[in-house]
Amino acid sequence: MDRKALAKTIDHTILKATATPDQVKSVCLEAIEIGAASVCVNPSNVELVKSLLEGSDVKVCTVVGFPLGANTTESKAFETRDAVAKGADEIDMVINIGALLAGDRETVLKDIKAVVEASEGALVKVIIETCYLDNNQKQLACVLAKEAGAGFVKTSTGFGTGGATVDDVKLMREAVGKDLKVKASGGIRDFATAVEMLKASADRLGVSASMAILDGVGEQEKPDLESNCY
Q: According to the model, what pLDDT value does residue 221 have?
């Protein structure tokens, strides 16, 4: 996998509370330069990012119910409609983690469905925040995301107690098969870790350290990723 192919798997991310418009602009320019899949920002920056990415192939990605997932379903649906109206192409939503932990399948399903319906065709990625879940709960979250009509399941917000792991990516892939895609996010800061996630069958990487990861291309032997991915 060369630098260009790797960049196409990256959601170049800036979600910190202190992000300034100039920093967001810098991330957008980097994303265009490297040919990233998207730029992922907080909702208040969607319009700015839309204007900066105009004319490029880089998508506008934003977050909903972020980072706790504890917003009401109605507020998540509103956030989604508002973000799409302002130019978002992709929505990364956080599930109702507490409801999942309580075994409340219907609340979690309803929550995801509301976002999918409000997205009006925009790609929805469902963040299950794996660090708080056991394997059965992770599998259930993936099944519910699939049932709700989402396009991706995603490991982490990056704000929890842990990020993406190879084992979680493999488990999520087994749960969704070829029907959904898998995004690994949280703690991916170097080329070797990025490659591990892709070999485990992740389709996207959510990272803020995109440039450092891409700078690692060619520094070590490149494995054959295609044989490991759906």
A: 43
